[in-house]
Amino acid sequence: MQSPPPGMLGIDFGTSNSAVSWAAPGGAARLIALEGEATSMPTAVFFNAEDRHTHFGRDAVAQYLAGTEGRLLRSLKSLLGSPLLLESTVVNHQQVSFQQIVEIFLNELRERAGRALGGGPAHAPRRVVMGRPVHFVDDDPERDALAQQSLLDAALAVGFEEVSFQFEPIAAALDHERRLTRESIVLVVDLGGGTSDFTVVRLGPQRMKLLDRSSDVLATAGVHIGGTDFDQRLSLEQVMPLLGYRHHGPQGREVPNRVFMDLSTWHLIQWLYLPRALSQAQGLRVNYTDRHLHQRLMRVLHQHDGHRIAHAVEQAKIHCSQQGTEAAVDLACVEPGLAAHIGPADMAAHLGALLARTVQCARECVQRAGLDNAALDAIYLTGGSSALRPLQHALQTEFKGVPLVEGDLFGGVASGLAYSRV
């Protein structure tokens, strides 16, 4: 039997996207292509009900958007530490727990890594460093520990024999350090789909040779806010009113908002398609003055268009952030010609409170290190959500004079993980 190669695999199992890297003993980490030449892929699984195949990443999202019959699951990481992880869902007429779906995705990452390293399943690596946020769950140590244990159980279940964990912002720092020419004190800002994590760390070319780096980590902090929270807020404020959110009924009361909250939250959307949830949504009809809005809501649920709308909101957010111009959220699947819009002013208004909490957490991290702005050499950005322009502007305002350095947004954490135990 072909044995796995010596070295260490790093897996950044993200809320929105995942990446994998490999480092041989003493060697540089390299990102592994997961989909074609792409070194990151959406953390998405699609169970195709037509041919019973399972699809992953961009392929999974494409199958869903093409209208293929089946189930799309995203934001699986958000379930870690939650009782929902042990709940089951029906996939191709079989009950499958969400813990098992996490295992299915991790197993796919491991097998793709094995093929990229020159072999089949028997060649798949057995040693792995898994990334984890500073807090899976805010202010709840027991649930936080449960989340890491669930991820450990999943890694062991798919064939890893040696599993360790590293904080994601520390991993990003280890990757950034490879490009430094002098010793620096850096605030690492790692914003992913589900969490915002911060580390103040001392880095430098000479320090890379040290075996024990614990004294170089000056402070860590984290808050459970990420890209999916930004998406949810924009969806609630700009899209859900077209389905009845904040609509007042015949008695002057707002339509109950639970269905809109769930419909704007990636990992909760699938629950709205169950018969009981559909019945409850149908029962909301009496709360509407404008019954046309309720018809739109029910059309979205019956057509299983929730993930399609969430994807469109995410893409509009990215476009608006990158281009600085208004972006349309096409809702033609709900009603011909229907659309919502997200502009820079909407981003500023709706994301302000979330961004303020995020930047405040960064400030607290620097304060825990006993430092001020003058002591920081740079703010290093990683994680897909750190590209959000309103966030970068908020950081520049809070940390005046400290340069922002944008790293590998989707691969930096994975690369650093592979360095953690080589």
Task: Give a short summary of the structure.
This protein is of the alpha+beta class and 422 residues long. Helix content is 37%, strand content 21%.
Structure report:
- The protein is α+β, with helices and mostly antiparallel strands.
- The chain folds into three domains: 8-168, 2-Layer Sandwich (Nucleotidyltransferase, domain 5); 182-226 and 354-406, ATPase, nucleotide binding domain (Nucleotidyltransferase, domain 5, 2-Layer Sandwich), CATH 3.30.420; 228-348, no CATH class.
- 37% of the residues lie in helices and 21% in strands.
- It is built from twelve helices and 18 strands.
- It has helices at 57-65, 98-116, 141-157, 168-177, 227-239, 258-263, 275-283, 291-302, 306-323, 344-368, 389-398, 412-419, and strands at 8-12, 17-23, 30-31, 40-42, 44-48, 54-56, 70-74, 88-91, 94-97, 127-132, 162-167, 184-191, 196-203, 217-223, 327-330, 339-342, 378-382, 404-406.
- Strands 1, 2, 3, 4, 10 and 11 form a six-stranded mixed sheet that branches. Strands 14-13-12-17-18 form a five-stranded mixed sheet, sandwiched between helices. Strands 6-5-7 form a three-stranded antiparallel sheet, with helices on both faces.
- It starts with 7 loop residues before the first strand and ends with a helix.
